[in-house]
Specification:
Blueprint: H1 3-14, H2 16-28, H3 30-34, H4 39-58, E1 64-69, E2 75-79, H5 96-102, H6 107-110, H7 126-131, E3 133-142, E4 145-152, E5 155-156, E6 161-165, E7 172-179, H8 191-204, E8 209-214, E9 221-226, H9 231-238, E10 250-256, E11 259-267, E12 274-279, E13 282-283, H10 289-308, H11 321-324, E14 328-335, E15 341-342, E16 348-349, H12 352-372, H13 374-407, E17 428-433, H14 435-444, E18 450-455, H15 467-472, H16 474-483, E19 500-504, H17 509-525, H18 527-531, E20 535-538, E21 543-547, E22 550-554, H19 557-567, E23 574-577, H20 586-594, E24 600-604, H21 611-621, H22 626-636, E25 637-641
Parallel strand pairs: 1-8, 12-14, 17-18, 17-19, 19-20
Antiparallel strand pairs: 1-2, 2-7, 3-4, 3-7, 4-5, 4-6, 8-9, 10-11, 11-14, 12-13, 15-16, 20-24, 21-22, 21-23, 24-25
Helix pairs in contact: 1-2, 10-12, 14-20, 17-22
The structure holds ligand TSJ.
């Protein structure tokens, strides 16, 4: 809660007319309060309401939260907390619940100074949701009575009234609201978006049971999220498709200077770190003081333990943090009053007390854990030493290749058939699976603007390989030099040699797998290319239909059926199902997949704001389930048919 605005609210409270003006301001500039009026903003309304119930759970008064997306797209949230207070608020002379819904930023004053997040988009309050809803009804169960009040576009329709009685022991709050379709671009709630967030909240709020019901679609969905182990189960979940290095989940919790800290840790045998920070249950992709404290404690504690127990020899250098965090999955969750956020997006925690609280609590409890579990400690430190050696080898290889490229003016890979035009804006590169398809693509292409880089077989899975192997991999080296941008710290997008990087693979499971590996590499090493929209998937046709010397191409089964219905299913048709790019000759490949005026390209996109979510999803999917991954990619690739016309 921002103090300046709280003071302003006291003036609002003094005058009912000004109250309405407050909510009018929200309707005039909704983006200022909920970030946007797109789908993202729409979903924020639900989080905003649910957050209040979660606060009640954190205060120890609520065990169940029920969220329904109703058939008419309204949302119902029910909790079994104490019920929003119905007594008259002395400053305004109206019931506290009405204050909550009609006065801007009233939440904090009535929340008893709970752990709400200020800044960012959360914690703007129930009144903002009310202002942006066509209608909202609140029902409160309290001391044997059922109370109700209704608002439309933020305006009170009738005074708080008793509509019935209930058992004395039944308490809680029920809210139903319909987002205003004159405010939002569209009013369609996405089950996947909601479930990701509620699963996360359930992991972060140990013991809280959240039920999500989706009643919009034909088949009704009901999911229950309830984790008695809290973030321990979160880490288990994130590692579920990986091989843990040891069976234990290292868990610490404590409180210092008003900061509540909870940390769960487990290494797996992979080489990437997945640490997710949360402040008051909100993900902090940009990190901040809590993450700095976490890293500091990890580095110090493992080095101290390694020295003391002589796993690290006296003539060996200290392990650096990155080495210890190789293959680490961790959740760092803190609860803090009035968190301060910094940086451009105000998403990076700045509160310094969070750093020392996390550092101290983790250091002392982790040290104890290591003393009690020497075999776990040994496994982690030995893995770190291997990582350290690999990092050193990779550095040497990189230095060598840097020097080499400086000397020979950066020679392009031999297999690359480059285009002749040197203006990157006009140029595109096709990364093609297999030498034979590569050959067809080379003869099919438009030489001036289209470059072809054939790759042999499956490329290295960078999720499963160490740095030294990645830098040494021929296919990966070829891509890096062809793109011209360099990777990691050396990455420079202004050096990109092609406007479009087009991944062209067979339209089968293997092809999808190769495309996934390629995207994983790009995502981990050159995420800017995806964020800036330079990466595409080519979409080759699945069928060729021939009748009376005329040819049609179908890109999926629906299209095939449509074409067949049009031209008739008599015996003079032939239908050919393409098994791979190799079955097409150069002319067909050009006509169906490479000609800018006829081809279909899928642009791979990544919303910058949700990149942490993407990260989580990648982590989750890069296990071994090809089908799941292909669905993930296809669901997120936008269909940009005939992009250039
Ligand atoms: F704010 C809201 F309307 F959006 C909302 C509030 C929505 C939902 C689904 C739940 C809630 C809510 C609020 N659930 N439980 C509460 N609890 C209180 O507001 C409350 C009750 C009693 C006391 C007390 O000190 O006795 C204090 C508070 C904050």
């Amino acid at each position: 809660m921002n103090t300046e605005e709280t003071e302003t609210n006291q003036e609002y409270g003094a005058d009912q007319i000004q109250i309405l003006e407050g909510l009018e301001a929200v309707r005039k500039r909704p983006g200022m309060y909920i970030g946007s009026t797109s789908s993202r903003g729409l979903h924020h309304l639900v989080y905003e309401i649910v957050d209040n119930a979660v606060d009640e759970a954190l205060a120890g008064y609520c065990n169940n939260v029920d969220v329904s997306v109703n058939a008419d797209n309204s949302i119902t949230v029910i909790d079994d907390g104490r019920g929003i207070p119905v007594g008259i608020n002395h400053k305004t002379g109206i019931p506290a619940v009405e204050v909550v819904f009609t006065i801007l930023h009233a939440g904090g004053k009535f929340g008893g100074g709970g752990y709400k997040v200020s800044g960012g988009l959360h914690g703007v309050g129930a009144s903002v949701v009310n202002a942006l809803s066509s209608w909202l009804e609140v029902t409160i169960y309290h001391e044997g009575k059922i109370y109700r009040q209704r608002y439309e576009q933020g305006k009170t329709i009738y005074k708080l009234k008793v509509i019935g009685t209930c058992d004395l022991d039944k308490t809680g709050t029920m809210i139903t609201f319909l987002p205003d379709d004159t405010v939002f671009e569209e009013i369609v709630f996405d089950f996947d978006i909601l479930q990701t967030r509620f699963r996360e909240i359930a992991f972060l709020t140990k013991g809280l049971k959240i039920v999500l019901r989706y009643l919009r679609s034909e088949k009704k969905i009901e999911k229950v999220y309830h984790y008695k182990g809290g973030i321990k189960e979160f880490v288990e979940y994130l590692n579920r498709s990986k091989t843990p290095l040891y069976p234990d989940i290292i868990y610490c919790e404590g409180k210092q200077n008003g900061v509540m800290v909870e940390i769960a840790i487990q290494h797996n045998d992979s080489f990437t770190e997945n640490t997710y920070g949360f402040v008051n249950s909100i993900n902090t992709p940009e990190g901040g003081t809590h993450i700095i404290g976490f890293r500091n404690a990890i580095t110090k504690t493992f080095n101290d333990y390694g020295r003391k127990n002589k796993i690290l020899k006296h003539n060996e250098p200290n392990l650096n943090g990155e080495d210890i965090r190789e293959g680490l999955t961790a959740i760092v969750s803190i609860k803090i009053k009035d968190p301060q956020f910094e940086g451009q997006t105000k998403q990076k925690l700045g509160s310094s007390e969070a750093r020392s609280a996390v550092d101290n609590i983790l250091s002392s409890q982790l040290e104890m854990f290591l003393e009690q579990h020497p075999s776990v400690a040994k496994k982690i430190i030995e893995k770190s030493i291997l990582s350290q050696r690999a990092r050193e080898a990779a550095r040497k290889a990189r230095d060598l290749s840097r020097r080499k490229s400086a000397m020979d003016g950066m020679s392009l890979p031999g297999k690359l058939a480059d285009c002749t035009d040197k203006d990157p804006k006009k140029c595109e590169i096709y990364i093609v699976e297999g030498d034979s398809a590569g050959g067809s693509a080379k003869s099919a292409r438009s030489r001036a603007t289209q470059a072809i880089l054939p790759l042999r077989g499956k490329i290295l899975n960078v999720e499963k390989a160490r740095m030294d192997r990645i830098y040494g991999n021929t296919e990966i080296k070829a891509m890096i030099t062809a793109f011209g941008t360099g990777i990691h710290d050396d990455f420079d997008i202004s050096k990109l040699r092609y406007d479009k990087i087009i991944i062209m693979t067979d339209a089968d499971v293997d092809g999808a797998h190769i495309a996934t590996l390629m995207l994983t590499f790009l995502y981990r090493f050159m995420p800017e290319l995806i964020k800036k929209g330079h990466v595409y998937l080519a979409k080759p046709p699945l069928y060729k239909i021939e009748k009376n010397k005329k040819i049609w191409y179908a890109y999926n089964d629906d299209e095939l059926n449509k074409i067949m219905a049009e031209i008739g299913r008599d015996g003079s048709n032939t239908i050919q199902r393409y098994k791979g790019l190799g079955e097409m000759d150069a002319e067909q490949l050009w006509g169906t997949t490479m000609d800018p005026s006829r081809r279909i390209l899928l642009r791979v996109t990544m919303d910058e704001e949700i990149s942490s979510e993407v990260d989580l999803t990648f982590t989750t999917l890069m296990g071994d389930k090809v089908e799941q991954r292909r669905e993930f990619i296809e669901a997120r690739a936008k269909d940009v048919k005939n992009l250039d016309t």
